[in-house]
Q: What sequence folds into this?
């Protein structure tokens, strides 16, 4: 667990981050969301000490991050930034091998790890290991950036607007991939974004920041149903909050027993998608099917609408 | 073979042939002489003069590179930033102070020969290397540097494995400029008894022998052009892996 205690960063008299405390759960994705200038990136960068706090402290699994030199701390924490910052003079494989090399892993272990990660990130090692970053597409560069951050098997991964430079279609895919990666490696991920939809989509818990202060830190559904601050309501969007709420629940989670002769939807689909499907077909109910194709239950319009009520 | 390569090899072959067998070029230079003066420089070995001039230039460039790169690295570190104006002034003085004047000042201090020439060339060659090192290090993409820090590189590791490799093409360009300028400037060294092709030119001036002047000038010029060309090729090789 990462515990942030009274973290403050002042430049001159202005506090960019003002007395922020939060506990980040292990093995989950926590999203810090806010407008530009809200201090969200500074907060993230204080976790790996790219920015040194003016006061307060960060504990990772109980140990104060100031107990060791900053560069050693950072080798244990993955870090991904918006522009990816791939080393242009190094090949993809060399980029991914950066931290293992710093940690002096033996060459064979490094080679195996690079192969494994490139495969996980759908970059055929044969074709891409020896390519240079400028030969890759934006989406590929982004994946190399994440692969590089995960190379030394860090338990914590910090991501600063990692999908900001991607076009919408690739971004959705990259977000799905990140959810997969998180499940696969069990990494504790802290992600900064200004995009509330992205925060809701990825975050198990979401921290909303404004003007250097932490406005609310809760599960996405709670941010919608019980916003602690008018600003939170404004940022999450008042007009479509019911729809947002629906997008946080999957059909499988709330399916009622029994089948239906309506259209079939995947258990992993969100209620928002199911509702859209119902509207489109003019049906009253859907049959929820699992990945194996077996019926897992059914859902009706009324049930879905009930879930959209705050 | 491209035209550029044809020219390149012709120039190199001509230079080598002339330095090894100067007498065989006598008919070419004979029309430039008067009263039966020798058409080819005969008071020393042209090859050894050319080599010693090249040697002097290389030693001076090595020293300039070491000092200018060192200074460039120092003033781009946070702890050394305040030395930037001072360093810039110093290397600028090295460039604006005419090499001839440096020679005049240096001779009483270190005597005649190679030493004053080395000092003059060293001072003259600092500026391009220094400025290019500073520019190269300062224009490293900020997100690349942030990634290097974020990965846990120490500042020395970052400098060595990220900043310097990225700045290398520009640094090499600075070294090339400095070398090429100094190949020509080094002929001045002959006024203070350094071995070099300036000797040939001075001998030509003293005896009113245009052939000597031309020989000294041509050999120097060809060396500068070929050196320039070779270094450009080297820079291309080095920067091939990095975009623009």
A:
């Amino acid at each position: 667990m990462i515990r942030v205690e009274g973290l403050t960063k002042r430049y001159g008299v202005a506090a960019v981050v003002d007395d922020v405390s939060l506990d980040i759960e292990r093995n989950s994705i926590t999203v810090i969301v806010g407008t530009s200038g809200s201090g969200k990136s500074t907060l993230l960068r204080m976790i790996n000490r790219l920015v040194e706090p003016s006061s307060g402290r960060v504990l990772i699994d109980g140990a104060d991050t100031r107990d060791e030199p900053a560069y050693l701390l950072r080798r244990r924490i993955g870090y991904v930034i918006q522009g990816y910052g791939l080393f242009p003079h190094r090949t993809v494989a060399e980029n991914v091998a950066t931290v293992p090399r710093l940690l002096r892993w033996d060459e064979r272990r490094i080679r195996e790890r690079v192969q494994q990660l490139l495969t996980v990130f759908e970059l055929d090692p044969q074709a891409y290991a020896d390519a240079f970053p400028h030969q890759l597409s934006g989406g590929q560069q982004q994946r190399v950036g994440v692969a590089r951050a995960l190379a030394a098997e860090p338990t914590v991964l910090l991501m600063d607007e990692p999908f900001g430079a991607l076009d919408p279609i690739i971004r959705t895919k990259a977000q799905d991939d990140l959810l997969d990666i998180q499940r696969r490696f069990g990494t504790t991920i802290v992600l900064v974004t200004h995009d509330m939809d992205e925060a809701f989509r990825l975050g198990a818990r979401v921290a909303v920041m404004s003007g250097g202060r932490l406005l609310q830190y809760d599960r996405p559904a709670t941010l919608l149903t019980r916003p602690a601050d008018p600003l939170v309501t404004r940022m999450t969007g008042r007009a479509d909050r019911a729809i947002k709420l629906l997008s946080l629940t999957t059909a499988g989670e709330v399916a009622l027993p029994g089948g239906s002769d309506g259209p079939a939807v995947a258990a992993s689909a969100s209620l928002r998608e199911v509702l859209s499907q119902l509207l489109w077909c003019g049906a009253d109910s859907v049959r929820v099917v699992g990945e194996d194709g077996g019926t897992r239950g059914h859902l009706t319009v009324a049930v879905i609408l009930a879930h959209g009520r705050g | 073979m491209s035209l550029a390569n044809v020219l390149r090899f012709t120039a190199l072959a001509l230079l080598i042939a002339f330095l090894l067998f100067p007498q065989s070029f006598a008919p070419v230079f004979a029309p430039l002489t008067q009263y039966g003066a020798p058409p080819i420089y005969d008071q020393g070995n042209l090859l050894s003069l050319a080599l010693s001039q090249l040697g002097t230039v290389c030693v001076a460039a090595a020293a300039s590179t070491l000092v200018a790169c060192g200074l460039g690295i120092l003033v781009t570190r946070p702890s050394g930033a305040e030395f930037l104006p001072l360093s810039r002034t110093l290397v600028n003085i090295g460039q604006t102070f005419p090499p001839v004047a440096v020679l005049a000042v240096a001779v009483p201090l270190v005597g005649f020969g190679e030493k004053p020439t080395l000092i003059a060339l060293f001072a003259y060659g600092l500026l391009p290397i220094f400025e290019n090192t500073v520019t190269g290090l300062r224009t490293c993409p900020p997100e690349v540097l942030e990634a290097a820090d974020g990965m846990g590189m120490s500042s020395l590791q970052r400098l060595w494995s990220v900043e310097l490799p990225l700045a290398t093409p520009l640094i090499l360009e600075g070294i090339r400029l400095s070398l090429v300028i100094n190949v020509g400037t080094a002929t001045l060294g002959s006024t203070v008894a350094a071995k070099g092709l300036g000797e040939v030119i001075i001998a030509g001036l003293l005896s009113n022998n245009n052939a000597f002047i031309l020989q000294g000038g041509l050999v120097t010029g060809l060396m500068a052009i070929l050196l320039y060309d070779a270094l450009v090729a080297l820079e291309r090789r080095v920067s091939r892996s990095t975009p623009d």
